[in-house]
Amino acid sequence: MDIKLKQCFLAVDDHDKAIAFYRDVLGLEVRGDVGFEGMRWVTVGSPLQPDVEIVLEPPAADPDTSPADKEVMAQLLAKGVLRGVNFTTSDCDELFARVRESGADVVQEPTDQPYGVRDCAFRDPAGNMLRFMEPSKP
Questions:
Q1: Total count of domains within the chain
Q2: Distance set, CA 115 to CA 36, 48, 61, 90 (Å)
Q3: Which PANTHER family does the entry link to (predicted)?
Q4: What pLDDT sits at residue 136?
Q5: Does 104 map to a domain?
Q6: Could you give the dihedral angle defined by the CA atoms of residues 11, 16, 22 and 23, in that order, rounded to the nearest 10 degrees?
């Protein structure tokens, strides 16, 4: 038996802003854009990983979620405490410069970590934490 990651989910409050960030800034492909019961799911992924996707979904993406719970989820998303994704990159500094230039919220500038990576971090337009790691050079 083999097990592989297929999809992970990030809540976003504005799919058009999310698409502009993930596609135009990070260079991910938009692989799907589906609406259902007044909600929207957009699937993005790296051209280098055709079998792994990030699904950008509404906060509380269940049509049966109560209005009170939807409000709580929106508040948590605004605080940036719901979810995050870690990426690898071959050039942390170049990626940092490009993402910073886009106006994204910088959380951490490129830093050499004691556990063997150089990494940086940003928040996407919805507040999700995104970390970009490059293996340290020997």
A1: 1
A2: 43, 25, 36, 17
A3: METHYLMALONYL-COA EPIMERASE, RING-CLEAVING DIOXYGENASE-RELATED
A4: 82
A5: yes
A6: 150
State the Cα–Cα distance between residues 69 and 86, nearest whole angstrom. Answer: 27
What six digits make up the tokens of 43?
């699937």
Tell me if 2 is assigned to some domain.
no
Report the 10 Å Cβ neighbour count for 83.
15
From residue 41, how far is each of 1, 5, 19, 31, 111 by CA, in Å? 30, 19, 11, 11, 34
Which residues form the domain of 19?
7-135
Domain membership flag for residue 64 = yes
Task: Name residues whose C-beta falls within 8 Å of residue 34's C-beta, 6 or more positions apart in sequence.
Answer: 40, 41, 42
CA distance 126 to 105: 10
pTM of the model as a whole? 0.89
Evaluate whether residue 1 is within a structural domain.
Answer: no
CATH of residue 19's domain is 3.10.180.10
Q: What is the mean pLDDT of residues 66-92?
A: 88
